[in-house]
Amino acid sequence: AKADGKRRWAMFDPDRNATEVARLRLSAQLPAALERGEFYVDYQPLVGMRRNDVVGVEALVRWAHPELGRLGPDRFIGLAEETGLIVPLGRWVLRQACLQGRRWARELGADAPFVSVNLAVRQSRDPNLVSDVAAILDETGLDPAKLQLELTESAIMGTADEPLESLRELSRMGVRIAIDDFGTGYSNLAYLRHLPVHELKIAGSFVEGLREADREDPVDARIVRTLVDLAHALGLTVTAEGVETRAQARRIAETGCETAQGYLFARPGPPEAVHELIIGGVPG
Ligand code: C2E
Ligand code: CA
Ligand code: CA
User: What is the pTM of this model?
Assistant: First the structure.
């Protein structure tokens, strides 16, 4: 197997080889990084369109790498998925988010936002998912209604029935389930109807085309409207992601989206920054 690996190695061009080495190095560093506490979580508000308030907060993981500086999730989540480290890493993020959610609940009572946590495909298939979530909720004392889990279409629309059953259990516990980046994967609409899902998050790539009426991408605008109508027909709420301009926020509100997320309102940041927005209100 070693000789085989060497032969394949020889076929790589030098550039490709260097990025591959960097990838492997990063990948190998993940477990120790988790042990040493090099990961941290930023939070980004989900803003209610009606009252411009913070209804939820998405937890987004980052890596404070000792040599490379701050790395975004796009640099390491894929690697963690490949190696399986995503399961303990994802559990760590979930626990941090629940601890933070509990802090907000203590400070703000019933008005506290829910925390929304991304679940990788591998986590959604993990047989311990439900018991892990239950244990973390129990330990942190967070009300299950103040937790939302975000899964992509591919995580939800698995071939096996298992992910479905665990989602159903989580939903029964009172946890909110959201479909992330909706419209970018493939969803079986018939299936969607029977899923224990509460919210659709429309991918920023569709929101991008929304502008003032005359300068708008008509196809993107039509897609957003269709997705919102579909969600509402299914009894789900909708969050629009990647809202960067006032025009987009206005268009989003017009289509009946309940919630929006994006740089217009706030960039992902430390929990203190979100706290200020919760108390002081959201600009825009
Ligand atoms: P996502 O779940 O779609 O998260 C939203 C991404 O869009 C975040 O990127 C956020 O910073 C970015 N974003 C927010 N508002 C705007 C905007 O107005 N314009 C633009 N252009 N971008 C905006 P980030 O933090 O780099 O995360 C990238 C992806 O990494 C996430 O996409 C998610 O799929 C994944 N991810 C992040 N944290 C976790 C985690 O704890 N577990 C797992 N499994 N995946 C995670
Ligand atoms: Ca997400
Ligand atoms: Ca998303």
Answer: 0.93
Does the C-beta of 70 come closer than 6 Å to ligand 1? no
Report the distance separating Cα 90 and Cα 86, nearest Å: 5
Dist. CA 115–CA 178, nearest whole Å: 12
Looking at residue 192, its pLDDT comes to: 80
Q: The tokens of 187 are what?
A: 């969803």
For 62-80, the pLDDT digits (tens) are: 999 999 999 999 999 999 9
Q: Which atom of ligand 1 is nearest to the CA of 263?
A: 18
pLDDT tens digits, one per residue of 50-66: 999 999 999 999 999 99
Quote the ligand 2 centre to 277 CA distance (angstroms).
20
Identity of the residue numbered 155? A
Please, which residues have CB within 8 angstroms of residue 92's CB and are 6 or more apart in sequence? Answer: 34, 39
CB distance 126 to ligand 1 below 6 Å: no
pLDDT of 88-111, one tens digit each?
999 999 999 999 999 999 999 988
